[in-house]
Specification:
mainly beta; 4-stranded antiparallel beta sheet
């Protein structure tokens, strides 16, 4: 009985190694990060590039964090207190390039800032990120303003921002046949 169970397990392992990797598994290298902006905190999955605490852009009373993630990443608000805003800005873009890392995005937005959408959120709410969108969270406490900009990029841009190279899809090279039904 043990021998039969062991041989079944070995066969299953062999079968699983023959299944091709999908794009989702190619991005397993992205790490979840929690960014605490004093009045709110956001947990982000599949983070590929992020300005670190020491490299954040701090100008006067404004602190900005920029993050790069692939489509399908999740964004979860884990802390939200009274001074944080109750909505985030959803701003679609056509194209984006990064010079010197994610802190310096050159963004060709698809619409004017005034036409972007403000979406309400609450503590514990989750968002599944869609490609070519910026999710922008802001808050303030006293005179300090915090910004968190999350850019959701396509595979090619993700690789340029430090992501894993996507696996190649196997091309079928055999004959194509069809049988009448």
């Amino acid at each position: 009985m043990k021998r039969k169970l062991l041989s079944i397990l070995i066969v299953l392992c062999l079968v699983f190694t023959m299944i091709p990797a999908t794009a989702t598994t190619a991005f397993a290298a992205g790490k979840s990060r929690t960014i605490d902006c004093d009045t709110f905190a956001v947990e982000i999955s599949s983070v590929y590039a992020m300005d670190s605490e020491s490299k954040r852009a701090t100008e006067g009373y404004v602190t900005t964090y920029c993050v790069v993630v692939p489509a399908g990443a999740t964004i979860k608000v884990t802390k939200k207190i009274a001074e944080s805003y109750n909505d985030y800005l959803l701003w679609p873009f056509n194209d984006i390039t990064f010079s010197g890392g994610p802190m310096y995005p050159l963004v060709d937005f698809a619409c004017h800032y005034d036409d972007a959408i403000y979406v309400p959120f609450a503590q514990g709410s989750s968002i599944t990120a869609a490609v070519n969108n910026e999710y922008s969270f802001s808050s303030h406490r006293n005179e300090r303003l915090f910004n968190l900009r999350i850019f959701v990029v396509d595979l090619e841009t993700l690789v340029q921002s430090g992501g894993a190279k996507p696996s190649q899809k196997a091309a079928y090279s055999g004959p194509v046949t069809a049988a009448p039904s």
